Amino acid sequence: MTVTVFTKPRCPQCDATKRQLTKLGIPFETVDLTQNPSTLEQLQQAGFQQAPVVITPDNSWTGYRPDLIRELAKTSAAQAPAAAANTVEAHAVAA
After folding, report:
1. pTM score, two decimals?
2. Helix, strand or coil, per DSSP, at residue 68
3. pLDDT of the chain along its 95 residues, tens only?
4. 4-7 and 53-55: which strand pairing?
5. d(CA 14, CA 31)
């Protein structure tokens, strides 16, 4: 699962979002919007008006949303056993 957090420096909501994702063991990529002005413009055109902007495979939101982060952690945990089973099956077929 790919999670991207678009942030800006000195942003308390951005920092809280990254802390919560890390605490719950959700891997994520960070994009600093001050270093990527074209990405900032694209996000604004898409209707996002505050940082952070979090993009997941199934959802997107702005601001610090602990409720959505917890939901993401549940989804991630539910997908982990299925991914592990697929890896085991792939190794068995290869052998």
Report:
1. 0.81
2. helix
3. 799 999 999 999 999 999 999 999 999 999 999 999 999 999 999 999 999 999 999 999 999 999 999 999 998 887 765 554 444 444 444 44
4. antiparallel
5. 11
